[in-house]
Structures are given as C-alpha cells and as structure tokens.
Amino acid sequence: MNPLRTAEDYELFLYTLSDHFSSIRNSTLTFVRKGISLARVSGELYFSHGIRLVVRERIIYNRLPSVIDWYGYEVVAE
What we know:
By secondary structure, the chain is an alpha+beta fold. The chain has 2 helices and 5 strands; from the N terminus they run H-H-E-E-E-E-E.
C-alpha cells in the first residue's frame, strides 16, 4: 500500500513507524494539518548509538495521491 495515498494513510504510517521498523527507538514526528490541502510533518526519529534523523516535510493533498512538496532531512550522530 502507498502510504501517500491519502493524508490519513500518511499520518497513520508516520505514527506507526516504530511498530514496523525495530531499529527506531523513539519518534517525535507529528503530522499537523494546515488547511484543506496542506500538512506539515516535523520531529525526530531516534536510533541506537546516538543516531537521530531530523525530519521536516510539507505535504500537499489536494490531489491523490498526496505529494511531499518540500522536505529537509538531517542525520545527526552524537
């Protein structure tokens, strides 16, 4: 299944990432709707050995499937 099929599908995908990927130790990702066709994703995924993935995405869902219109990812090793 395509997690970007609808906004609801992508939101569920994000909030259940750690259920599907055992390498994720913790997640602070949030999916926030910003209107009728826009959402923002932000937060961090925490992995073992002090590795973090910082996530920023803008999702457009006025047409299906949804589209990641803008993104930024940063890997941080502590």
